[in-house]
Structures are given as structure tokens and as C-alpha cells.
Amino acid sequence: MLVSTDRHPSRESRAFARAFASSIGSFYRARGKKTVDALVSEARKKGENILSIVSSSEISFISISVSSWGWKQKTLRVIKYSFEPDLLKKPCEIGAFEGKEGKELESLFGFDAFYGGDAVLFAEGGKMRIIRKEKNLLEMEYGIQECRVEK
Fold first, then answer.
1. Which of 33, 82, 83, 105 is disulfide-compatible with 19, CB 3.0–4.6 A?
2. DSSP alpha helices (H): ranges in 46-144?
3. Residue ranges per structural domain of the chain
4. Rounded CA gap, 63 and 4, in Å?
């Protein structure tokens, strides 16, 4: 997954996007003046199947295939988050999705197999935690929103 920000991000949004990317074993790309099409093209070149656009209040997901791209049907509405600053120094990789909502997030994030990483994403009751060695790296309260996709 390639993670970037919305068009005019605040400093807080950029920090959150970096932390989110680092916590799921992905990478962050500063958006600058790039269009969504340019970000999709960059993600394809890197072999990614999902582009994530992060703001301080929402994470949107775009599915990418070789021939086309389209917004996913769901977004995460971010209510509140906190992250461990050390996360930005040593990124982790998700090894498992657990909890009642873990499988739904696994699908939304575009993960389709166990990656064998050193972190666990635990999601239940609208709260998500990314845990490595019994330490919470990223905590987030969220809501899953259905999106209206125009055809």
C-alpha cells in the first residue's frame, strides 16, 4: 500500500500519514502537487495494489489494477488517534489481523495473506491498535463509512 495525504494537509495530517504507513509496513509519499492519477501511477510502478489517502479525519482507499483504478466502497472515519514516536524510527510489518473487526480491516487495507511481520493489528469495537512486543505503536478510534461511488 502506498500512503499519501490529501491535497492540502496540515502538519498533523502528514505526521499521522507517516505513522499510519510505518505502522502497517508500508511507505509514505509526500503528495505535493500530484494528482490522484499521478499517485496511482506511482503506486503501480512500485507494485502496490492499494493507494491510501490520509487526512486528519479520514482514510480513503483506492484499489489499483493494471488497467484501472477506483475508490473502494468504504473509508475509515478517524475519530481520535495517538502513536508512539519511535514508530517513525523503526517501521513494523503487520503479521496478523485480530479481533472482531480485524478481517474487515485486512480486506480494506488490501492484505490478502499472512505476512509474517512482527506486529499485530487488533480491531474491535471501533478501536484499532497496532501492537509490537506488547507495546501499542498506533491506537485509533474509527468508524467505517460506506461510500457512494459514482459510475
1. 83
2. 102-108
3. 2-146
4. 14
CB 128 within 8 A of CB 122: yes
Rounded CA separation 7/23 (Å): 22
For 107, other C-beta atoms within 10 Å of its C-beta total 13
Coil, strand or helix at 87:
helix
3, 26 Cβ separation under 8 angstroms? yes
Integer Cα distance of 96 and 146 in angstroms: 25
The Cα–Cα gap between 151 and 92 comes to: 37
pTM: 0.86
**pLDDT, tens only, 85-140:** 878 788 888 888 999 999 889 888 887 655 678 889 999 999 999 998 888 999 99
2-5 and 27-28 beta bridge pairing: parallel
